[in-house]
Amino acid sequence: MSNYTDASLIYYPSGVKSGKAYSLKPTDGSGDLTFTRASTATRVNESGLIESVATGVPRIDFTGGGCGKLLLEPQRTNLDTTSQTFSSWTLNNSGGVTTSSITTSNPYNFATVQKVIPSAVLGQHRPLLSTNYSAAGKFWVIAKADGYNYLSLGDGGGLAGSSIIFNLLDGTISGTAGGFIPSITSLGNGWYKCSMNTTFVGLTGRWVIIRNNNTTADYIGDGTSGILFAHKQMEVGAYDTSSILTSGTAVTRVFDGCNDLDITSFSIGNSYTILIGAELNPLENNKIFFTAKTSASTESFTVRNFNGLLRLYNNIDSAYPVAAISSSTNKWVLRIDGTSYNIFAYGSTLAGTFTTARNLAQFNFYGLATELKMQNLIIFPSALTDAECIALTL
Fold first, then answer.
1. pLDDT below 50 — which residues of the chain?
2. Is the terminal CB of the chain with fewer CB neighbours within 10 Å at N or C?
């Protein structure tokens, strides 16, 4: 079997323009994906820098290195209205802090970043931003040591979670706090992303706490040492999404989507095979990301993210015919052959039946309900053999 020769459609993240993500096959444009996002957004580019992407332009994201992936995300709002500075924050809490703009290399290639400097007053040095929202979410910052090496993030009206300490020298976390799950990720050149879950409850605050060591909360600052910040984000949702830049007001990034693609001209009947290569977020539960439709525009089946596993829902019969299935390679193969079907993943397979056969004439995939990092999508106009399907999952 030759993927290129035998496939009707092949999509790998490559060329993009406003409203379009180009497929490798067919080459006449009939398989290109129509893309939508009614806002700007950000991505990690090939150089590892975080950059803005214009409204309606698909994002090929290189987070973690390697091959780029088409990034589709749900709608999110950054509740921190000044993500690059602390100009909207209260600085004189407890021991207080001052800020200054520093020119240094950073993950966003900003001209300057903000340095937060604890004052020479005994106390905790913790700028505060109050938000008026009621929902669970995430609070995260992009920070680098510059004299002081330790950072905590405080939650809510008090300082819940502040016993969790992020080490900006070696990228470790010490301390615990009930109900809080912190994470730290190196972005290179001493910069770290520090993240923690939070609960926005009415008019309450989030704190950034600058520490001079990993034990003592109260101290007298030396007036020059501090921590650098390139970005701050507060968003409602179970996981961090891409950076949403703000400069005076809260900003919403609208969801990404690839609209219905009409492939009626491909003449795909009731037997076909679909390879879906994608990273699925394990924090999403039964969220739709792919919809297949018949030539009558009837929704045939949907493919869902079930806590990082793939799950199929039979829309025509209104039933979940089989369980969810995991794949360590992030590749799944759906083989439809009349009224029978199989789902192949690396090392395992599931089988089931439909009450009626259905052709494939349209499809779409969306980030409306779940984060999706699409690696590839290939559609074959026939039911491949077991061996061919297994080979595609490797």
1. none
2. C
